[in-house]
Amino acid sequence: MSIINIDALTVKAGNKVLVSDVSLDVEPGTWCTIIGPNGAGKTSLVETVAGLRRVASGSVSISGRALSTMNERERALVVSLVPQHPEIPAGMTVREYVSLGRSPYHGLLHAPSDNDHRIVDSVFDQLSLQEFAERDVVTLSGGERQRMVLGRALAQSTSVMVLDEPITGLDLRHQMGLLELLKTQVEQGGLTVVATMHDLTLAGQFADRLVLLDKGKVVLDGPAGQVVRSAELAQCYGMNLRVIDVDGADVVVPVRS
Amino acid sequence: MLNANPPTGRRVALVTVLTLVGLCVAVVCGLAIGPTPIGTMRIIGSIFSHVGIGHSTLNSLQSTIIWQLRAPRLVLGLLAGAMLSVAGGTYQGVFRNPLADPYLLGVAAGAGLGATFAIMDIGGGTYTPSWTPLMAFAGAMVAVSITWIIGGRGLRSSASTLILAGVAVAALLTSLQTYLQQQASAQSLARVYIWLLGSLASASWSSVDLVLPYVLVCITICVLAGRALDVMSVGEDESRSLGVPVRRVRLIVIAASSLGTAAIVSAVGLIGFVGIIVPHIVRLLVGTSYRRILPLSVAFGAAFLVFADTIARTVIAPSELPLGVVTALVGAPVFVLILSFRKQLVR
């Protein structure tokens, strides 16, 4: 049984259709990456799965319950978000920032419980954040910040995590490091990931499944190896793409016409 | 406010203790300093006698001066300082705007118009009618309501839309107020200006009774919102993804801040600067968490305004300086001083 059900979803901004009649089912403990050119509707789709956008028609359900029937707190207990451009509030320590992920559990009028502290400690261990714990969040480098934002989402202990371009702005080592961390959560923690990514090679290597989106519609949906080798992929991007096998991994290379 | 090391618990505790000591000193100063010298220990003895401990050694005149003149003025000053400061801090948090103050959504302009109308049209400009506070309160609440409605009821719109609506409403009401003032005689204009500049001179226990329930409830709501405002510092979308009902929190917090501010303004007029400067001073001392800023702003703001009022009523006694002028004259250098020493303070 799938954990995320997207049924005939249409999302609009004013009269502009951002996502059009999209239907997807995502299995629990899998990684689904949405790919597509700029303006394809990737961010709108994942933001809707995170409950941040109003649905024009259709529905999004998590664990059988429609997001539209949940309040903010109920949604925050089932789906967490790693935004593309997270707000980094100056003056907050890394520990305080990661602890924000426990807000849906202890509520807005109560202090975090011992259990909340234990979970935050365990996230710090998993992501090796201890050395930054008491630092001001604005003093972290890009890679450290992204790890911290992932830490906040992990502290939410949700079954579904939505990530919008999580490796944007990171160097190669930090890109791989972050994706490996996430993959561990999927394989060992049973986390379900829905992410958007521009890097087709990394998307193909880490995701179990790729969904190619163009002009708000699903063009192709399938196993990563199949989607990156499809003719539709090159068509959507309007360019020549070549896929090279490097030690069993598909590397997608754009070729100048 | 870039700190390599946010404030430690020890520093927060130290600032809290010093603020509370300052508050106690302000209370004693508020009661002890005045044209009729009365010994501090005798005042403290009188305070204890009111709670059934020991006997007061004050004669009846001294007792009247302390309990009917200075005490209500002190309590109203404490309430005004606490309310304006916590409302300013709350506004800065909910709008994520360091320039926000309690008058942001038109409270000052609405109250000013209401008071001007009461003094000039009802009082004919020859006296300040007893219902001036009521008119000021009504004006303030009407102004905030209009801002809320034209700002998209704050539910669908962003915080910046609400701020812009507040700017527009304040401009409109201020222009109406200016038009009314233009029609006024010099005598009535002076009355209006005295009211607009803010003063605790007409404080009485009845004015304390009138504002106390509003202020206590509103301060409690604002302080309790600290944790929500901390989460909201990551922006609207991210805080919603963390389970915060952002629009509902915004509505509750704005309603509480505006209502409390309107109640205070109706009693003491427009006292500027406190609402913007106190939360900033507290932020520089204890960091950016609203769980620390808001309760400390209550104590700091209360003490600050009582000190400012003590200066206002003593430096050119028997006349008084406008309280709003003193808050700016005292507050600005204190703020600049703390800003200059920020690097040392945050270590």
Describe this structure in words.
- The complex is a heterodimer of chains A (257) and B (347).
- Chain A contains ten helices and twelve strands.
- Chain A is globular and about 55 Å long.
- In chain A, helix 5 packs antiparallel against helix 6.
- Chain A has helices at residues 42-49, 72-76, 94-99, 103-106, 114-127, 142-155, 172-189, 200-206, 224-228, 231-237; strands at 4-13, 16-26, 31-35, 57-62, 65-66, 79-82, 160-164, 192-196, 209-214, 217-223, 240-246, 249-255.
- With 257 residues, chain A is an alpha/beta fold.
- In chain A, the strands form three sheets. A six-stranded mixed sheet of chain A has the order 6-7-8-3-9-10, sandwiched between helices.
- The N and C termini of chain A lie far apart (44 Å).
- Chain B is mainly alpha-helical and 347 residues long.
- Chain B has one domain (9-345): ABC transporter involved in vitamin B12 uptake, BtuC (Orthogonal Bundle), CATH 1.10.3470.
- Chain B has 15 helices and no strands.
- In chain B, helix 5 runs antiparallel to helix 11 and helix 12 packs across helix 13 (290-314).
- The longest helix of chain B is centred in the N-terminal third of the chain and has 35 residues, at 60-94.
- The model of chain B has no long low-confidence stretch (mean pLDDT 87).
- Classes of the chains: A alpha/beta (257), B mainly alpha (347).
- The interface between A and B is medium-sized, with 35 and 29 residues.
